[in-house]
Design brief:
It is built from two helices and four strands, in the order βαβββα. The strands form two sheets. The protein has a two-stranded parallel ribbon with strand order 1-2. A two-stranded antiparallel sheet has the order 3-4. β1, α1 and β2 form a beta-alpha-beta unit. The protein has 70 residues and is an alpha+beta fold. It is elongated, with a radius of gyration of 16 Å.
């Protein structure tokens, strides 16, 4: 592994978390990566992508359709 490697962590989730919750998630995941690898926090890049429930599916059914059944 290169000493200067810059990891990119991708988080994919459905919408609904607040900006504060996403900021906490980013901090916690960065801290966990730094602790596990000994990397510097400034080397850790991260994206948080929100995918609508009509674009996310389980077993051939969208999350929106599953929620509508409840």
């Amino acid at each position: 592994i290169q000493e200067n490697a810059m990891p990119l962590i991708h988080v994919q989730q459905t919408p609904g978390k607040t900006a504060e919750q996403k900021a906490e998630l980013v901090r916690e995941l960065t801290d966990a990566y730094v602790k596990a690898t000994g990397s510097k926090p400034e080397s850790v890049w991260m994206t948080v992508q929100e995918i609508g429930t009509d674009s996310w599916s389980i077993a051939g059914e969208t999350l929106a359709a599953r929620a509508a059944k409840r």
